[in-house]
């Protein structure tokens, strides 16, 4: 019998789960315990997990179907596993801005998991995670009520590709496959498990608030981006080899910090298919 224990991170975002070896199949009680921790803290961390792609995919399937990235080619033999790699000769660090995975899809991803295969020798290239539930709850009630009535347009290109042009060349990503995809999402969404509300906008993929003027839209989005990424809502993950981290895309946004371009960083990502459109 596996005994699951956990250590919450300060601020209510993230918990380190102890006593679980993801290289082994998990029983239903252990899976249930892990899910409860995940729903409560939005992000879970497993240390020193020496696992194969098959084992990472198996873990993801405890939460739901694992889906391949809509544009980026997967690992050889594992189309549903995305390789997040910067070699020591690459000049560009992919997807560094704050974003919520696939918010530009009508039914965005439920969760994502990253397994650290190689981290930069400088120990940089950290990942920042933002608690969008806490960010929403910190807003005044009148502003919450106003935002509840708004929807936002999300697209792969967002408001601007400035500074992200090289992202389009990552993993055979083609601009002509992404630029026409636009979906409407609520600015505030409710989590189907906790029933808590959170902001659901992000600087990379949120394009506009269509019921407002362009100036009003930019002003409000800029404020929400700045507000939601305040330090009190952010958890910084300093990667160690073989860390596996999974976060809830329905209420968490994330970004990568820079690291020297001469260093290599390799992670493998699995993504869980969304179960419903945001509401």
Give descriptors for this structure.
16 strands, 6 helices, eight-stranded mixed β-sheet, three-stranded antiparallel β-sheet, 279 residues, alpha+beta
Care to describe what's here?
The chain is an alpha+beta fold. It is built from 6 helices and 16 strands. It has helices at 28-41, 53-61, 132-137, 141-148, 175-178, 214-228; strands at 5-8, 15-18, 43-46, 66-67, 81-86, 111-118, 127-131, 151-155, 182-186, 188-190, 197-199, 206-208, 234-237, 244-248, 252-256, 265-272. The strands form 4 sheets. Strands 1, 2, 3, 4, 5, 6, 14 and 16 form an 8-stranded mixed sheet that branches. It has a 3-stranded antiparallel sheet with strand order 13-7-15. The chain has a 3-stranded antiparallel sheet with strand order 9-8-12. A hairpin with a 6-residue loop joins strand 1 and strand 2. The longest helix has 15 residues, at 214-228. The model has no long low-confidence stretch (mean pLDDT 89).
């Amino acid at each position: 019998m596996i005994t699951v224990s956990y250590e919450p991170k300060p601020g209510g975002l993230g918990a380190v789960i102890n006593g679980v070896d993801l290289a082994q199949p998990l029983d239903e009680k252990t899976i249930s315990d892990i899910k409860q921790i995940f729903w409560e803290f939005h992000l879970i961390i497993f240390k020193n997990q020496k696992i194969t792609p098959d084992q990472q995919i198996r873990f993801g399937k405890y939460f739901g179907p694992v889906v391949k990235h809509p544009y980026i080619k997967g690992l050889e033999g594992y189309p549903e596993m995305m390789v997040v790699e910067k070699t020591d000769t690459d000049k560009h660090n992919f997807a560094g801005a704050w974003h919520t995975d696939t918010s530009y899809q009508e039914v965005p991803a439920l969760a994502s998991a990253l397994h650290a295969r190689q981290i930069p020798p400088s120990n940089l290239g950290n990942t920042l995670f933002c608690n969008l539930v806490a960010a929403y709850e910190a807003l005044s009630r009148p502003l919450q009520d106003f935002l509840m009535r708004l929807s936002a347009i999300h697209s792969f290109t967002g408001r601007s590709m400035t500074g992200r042009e090289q992202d389009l060349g990552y993993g055979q990503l083609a601009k002509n496959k992404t630029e026409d995809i636009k979906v409407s999402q609520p600015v505030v969404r409710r989590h189907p498990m906790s029933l808590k509300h959170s902001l659901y906008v992000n600087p990379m993929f949120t394009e506009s608030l269509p019921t407002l003027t362009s100036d009003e839209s930019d002003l409000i989005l800029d404020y929400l981006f700045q507000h939601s990424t305040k330090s009190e809502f952010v958890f910084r993950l300093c990667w160690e080899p073989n860390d596996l981290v999974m976060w809830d895309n329905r209420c968490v946004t994330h970004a990568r910090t820079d690291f020297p371009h001469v260093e290599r960083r390799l992670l493998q990502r699995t993504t869980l298919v969304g179960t419903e459109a945001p509401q």
